[in-house]
């Protein structure tokens, strides 16, 4: 029964990795761009949710906010920060240097944003873990001897809804057709009338939304936040994305769940110190057997969503 309980917990944890892995997949699959700010956006939503629920708005504009409202504000802030990254890593640099998707300038500039935002939060609130005061009631269900927390169940449900929504958005809407056109060939998309200045920000808005929701759900599920919380989640999400297959949304789902299961099963049998070895060992073995990942494609980042 304990092993089954750990399996249930691993699926719940994997849902967080799935959401962040899908965010990575969007930028890889459409823009051919590894966005290093994604872990920071995840952290930003959680930390700002805690700060607003504990201190309120800055400059005494409000007292401590109810935790749902504080987390909602944290998600909005993550979206705004993601749009800021788009403005200076893509729009400005592409205008100045040409097709910035073909070299390292956006990647390095996104790394700069990661360090700036993370260190601003560390300067403001320190590096210690903070207790997030979420729901007061005991929201735990006993299902046949298995204990499932309601926030974790909601997190899994929200993750499934997000993936279905993104799939339908990309496959069945005008914006989705524009995104797929940019993924296939940005220059041809421009010739055919796709307004990249309007369509590309949608990718960053979705990225900020995904990371913000993941950070908010993580804060509620595990009750702790810190300025460093994005680093471990980000690396595990990248591993899940690669295992599942670069550029595949459903591959990111499968990969994120696999990483969640591997992590908690490794902790259960071997201890926490061996988690990174097992997760990244699984990634290397997957790449040896399936160089494109389980559901990936040979043409990485070229419209294979």
Automatic annotation (TrEMBL):
InterPro entries: ABC_transp_permease (IPR001851), BCAA_transport_permease (IPR052157)
Compartments, as annotated in UniProt: Cell membrane
GO MF annotations, alphabetized: L-isoleucine transmembrane transporter activity; L-leucine transmembrane transporter activity; L-phenylalanine transmembrane transporter activity; L-valine transmembrane transporter activity
GO biological process: D-alanine transmembrane transport; L-alanine transport; L-isoleucine import across plasma membrane
Membrane topology value: Multi-pass membrane protein
Signal peptide: none
Cellular component terms per the entry's GO annotation: plasma membrane
Chain segments annotated as transmembrane: 12-34, 41-61, 67-85, 105-126, 146-170, 199-218, 238-262, 269-290
Chief site of localization: membrane
Sorted UniProt keywords: Amino-acid transport, Cell inner membrane, Cell membrane, Membrane, Transmembrane, Transmembrane helix, Transport
Similarity comment text for this entry: Belongs to the binding-protein-dependent transport system permease family. LivHM subfamily.
Protein name: Branched-chain amino acid ABC transporter permease
Species the sequence originates in: Flavimaribacter sediminis
